[in-house]
Specification:
22% helix, 18-stranded mixed sheet, alpha/beta, 13-stranded parallel sheet, 10 helices
């Protein structure tokens, strides 16, 4: 609903929600209103924000925008951070108030700002409910932290097999919604139809519906914030007639289902899935070159295939559902135009990402383990970033695209080919790197024309810790470790250039061998091919940056 709270009441409520995600007790709220009335909204905002200036601008931006309900949005988060740097953290209270006021006015915005319609609706509902809580003398303590802390359960209504008209103005109680959080049920297949008109009114209202197999349903929904669909195989739900929808879920997925006409600001989710299925999602308004959308996986263990079209940035959140105690979601993500996949959440995720245009997969904000399978397409470089869990990366690089991978913390496992001079950065934890296809016809050729070009054609591994991490090398033809003498290694290390060192290493090792040697401040592993003695283009070179001594147990060759 549009903004309902104004003036000092809006100032005090908005600041409490933006900074604390909480509604103060009635006595605290009244004291704050008195103070704000005396000094004015801006001065009160400055005073309120002063308690948070020990935080960095980056952390403040994330905190405020998160509490406003507009994250993930990397561009907006960075812009607000930069703005705080520009105006100074001392003004963070005023900045928070400005952002809250701007968001409150975006319920019916058009153009690029239409992406904030649902967030604006949710924010206005939150501020209204928060004010209602704090203004009630019976509330002698602050509410729990969280965006749903002030929700009040409303009525539960059921649709029928006929044409239903549900609204706050309905004359019959069985069709009358309230200003609280109502639930509308259509759990019998066929009871939700295109002729139904459902208006939830104020509050955060939920529709739960079951769709028959192959059914297409396009109801008119107003002020229904959450929809949960249990869909038969081939069922289609069209959301083009829904206004104010913030979440659209397929519940207990199995078979194939389709959502169409979904607003870009609406989060699409898969919940409590064990059988697996295909969910096709089509967003309305996805016609630009930088469209962003969000999906959520919650107790989705059935290896569902979520297929999203015409979206350039896809945000994927892995979290818990309402039924199972799952700690790892399992789903495929197929996105035809996606260039960037951002993975967040507090539950593990095992996923295969498929997309011909993907150039970035960023899971740095995922707090549990990621199991990622991804195949590059074409020659466009791809960056992949893991989080803090024990991540597993299985990368098919047969297209020849260069991969820059940052594993992050945790005991990560990286499996990748030798089709390009990839850059791999490890982190804390006992990591394992598997590199296959070395020294073969399909591996990236070494450029042995100069030392600099040789260095640029090597696969580089950074943050490798000898004795803790392990690198396992597999060549196109089975290889064994060379056993150079100490004198031979010293001669290699004393070479005048990397090219000279590699040439001497190749001669020392012989064909179809793997030899580790130090040059400068780094350790290199050269894998020679089967056919040609000496250093040649079909050999492969691995650089372990900053490693001066490599334990024999820290690398294998096969």
């Amino acid at each position: 609903m549009p903004k309902q709270i104004f003036g000092i009441d809006s100032t005090v409520t908005s600041l409490n929600r933006a900074f604390n995600d909480q509604s103060p007790a009635n006595s605290v709220y009244n004291n704050q209103v008195t103070q704000a009335t005396a000094v004015g909204a801006n001065q009160f905002a400055l005073t309120f924000g002063a308690g948070y200036t020990s935080m960095t601008e980056d952390a403040l931006s994330t905190k405020i925008l998160g509490n406003l309900g507009v994250l993930p949005n990397a561009g907006l988060q960075a812009a607000v951070k930069d703005y705080l740097v520009s105006v100074g953290k001392a003004n963070v209270g005023i900045v928070a108030l400005q952002l809250a006021d701007i968001l409150a006015g975006l319920e019916t915005a058009t153009g690029d700002q239409a992406a904030f319609n649902a967030a604006a609706l949710a924010w206005n509902n939150e501020v209204t409910a928060s004010y209602t809580y704090s203004a009630n003398p019976a509330n002698t303590s602050a509410s729990p932290v969280g965006p749903t802390d002030t929700q009040v359960t409303g009525v539960t209504l059921s649709l029928t097999s006929g044409d239903d008209f549900v609204s706050p103005a309905a004359s019959e109680a069985k069709f009358k919604t309230t200003g609280n959080n109502d639930t509308i049920l259509a759990t019998t297949a066929g009871f939700l139809s295109a002729t139904d008109v459902v208006d939830g009114g104020a509050g955060v209202d939920t529709l739960k519906a079951t769709l028959a197999a192959a059914a297409t349903v396009a109801p008119t929904l107003q002020n229904i914030e959450k929809v949960f669909v249990t869909a038969g195989a081939g069922a289609k739900f069209t959301a083009s007639g829904a206004t104010g929808l913030t979440e659209l879920w397929v519940d207990a997925a199995g078979g194939a289902a389709e959502f169409s006409g979904v607003n870009l600001a609406t989060t699409v989710g898969v919940q409590n899935s064990v059988a697996g299925g295909v969910l096709k999602v089509g967003f309305s308004g996805a016609t630009g070159a930088a469209d962003s959308a969000s999906i959520v996986l919650a107790d989705a263990t059935g290896n569902d295939d979520v297929q999203v079209t015409a979206i350039e940035t896809l945000n994927v959140k892995s979290t818990a559902g309402t039924v199972a105690a799952t700690t790892v979601n399992n789903a495929k993500i197929t996105a035809d135009l996606a260039e960037k996949i951002v993975i967040t959440g507090d539950q593990g995720l095992t996923t295969t990402v498929t997309g011909a245009n993907v150039t970035s997969i960023d899971a740095s904000a995922l707090t549990k383990a990621l199991g990622l399978t991804f195949a590059t397409t074409g020659s466009t470089a791809v960056s992949i970033t893991g989080g803090v869990g024990a991540d597993t990366f299985t990368i098919n690089d047969a297209s020849g695209a260069k991969v820059t991978l940052v594993g992050g913390d945790g005991a990560d496992t990286v499996t990748i080919g030798a089709y390009n001079a990839h850059k791999i950065t490890l982190g804390a934890g006992a990591d394992t790197v598997n590199v296959g296809g070395l020294a073969g016809a399909a591996a990236k050729d070494l450029d042995i024309s100069t030392a600099a070009k040789l260095a640029s054609s090597a696969i580089e591994v950074t943050d490798f810790v000898s004795g803790t991490d392990v690198i396992k090398l597999t060549a196109a033809a089975a290889t064994v470790k060379a056993t150079p003498t100490g004198t031979e290694l010293a001669n290699i290390a004393a070479s005048s250039s990397l090219l000279t060192a590699a040439q001497l290493a190749a001669t020392t090792a012989g064909t179809n061998k793997a030899i580790a040697f130090q040059f400068g401040a780094d350790t290199y592993i050269l894998v020679t091919d089967l056919a040609t003695p000496g250093l040649d283009a079909n050999d492969s070179l691995i650089k372990l940056t900053g490693v001066t001594t490599l334990a024999d147990a820290s690398w294998t060759s096969a």
